[in-house]
Amino acid sequence: MKKLHVLIVDDSSVMRKIVERSLRQAGLELEEVKEASNGAEALTEVQKGSFDLILSDINMPAMDGLEFLRNLANVPSAKSVPVVMITTEGSEARVVEALSVGARGYIRKPFTPEQVKERVAPLVGGGQ
Amino acid sequence: MSLSVNEPVTKIDEHWKGLLECAAVEVFSMMAGLELETFAEPPTDVRGDQTAMVGLAGALCGMITVRCSSKVATKLAAALVGGDASANPSMMSDAMGELANMVAGNFKSKVTNLADRCMLSVPTVISGEDYTLQMMPPTEGFNMVLSLGGEAVWFSLVIHGA
After folding, report:
1. Omega before residue B123 within 30° of 0, cis
2. pLDDT-flagged residues of chain A (< 70)
3. Which one of A24, A90, B21, B157 has the minimum C-beta count within 10 Å?
4. How many domains does chain B fold into?
5. pLDDT above 60 for B2
6. Is the CB of residue A25 less than 8 Å away from at least one CB of chain B?
7. For A73, how many CA atoms within 13 A lie in the half-sphere containing its CB?
8. What ipTM goes with this model?
9. Chain A to chain B, count of Cβ pairs less than 8 Å apart?
10. What domains does chain A contain, in order, with CATH numbers?
11. Is the CB of residue A109 less than 8 Å away from at least one CB of chain B?
């Protein structure tokens, strides 16, 4: 598997670090990790750089994860980048909504590195 | 434990203490690699100078809190993100808030029919021990304490009653 350029979007700096650590513990090789604290910042990062994978929280201030997904669909260079939502909410409705506007998967907190790998690896050419 | 789909929840269910304990144990274990255990002789005074609170709104209105000492909070932050969190107080607060958020989210996902009908607030963290939390009455709730290597971590659920 190639080394990945990843964007992690979460309003919690602790959660961004946890997600990065989990990706590494899951055995994914990361070339570059960029962080954004909301959807608006994430859109700026997407327009500046190129990513293999985006992991995004749903509930965030300024621009939440669902709005970010809707806006991401209008960025031609990012249309094929898989986005995986990370959520604390047990709400099926929000997960379904995220999938309907372009998310390729979701991870519910709490999660293990194995669960992260199971959800993410198939999207970045890593198989099961 | 399941709830009526359209009714607001104004009573603490007898199973919720067990569900909150289960939710907390899972979060600490899966996210921080730390094992919470029951005390053989649990402390009775709710103490700790770090308190993280997450509000519940919707079908169930109330608050879930996680409370512990700064020493334990530093340990939690270090376990969550690695490194030494004692040099970075904001990291400790952020970690406490995230843990409370995940415990609350995990708890409500364990109560059938609640997940889609109850929203969580952004976490708030209080540093300091000399405070009193008061919610609009009537309320009901419970405290429970678990051991993290012999140190107390308190969890509470308070809801607006009928």
Report:
1. no
2. 89-91, 126-128
3. A24
4. 1
5. no
6. no
7. 12
8. 0.84
9. 67
10. 4-124 (3.40.50.2300)
11. yes
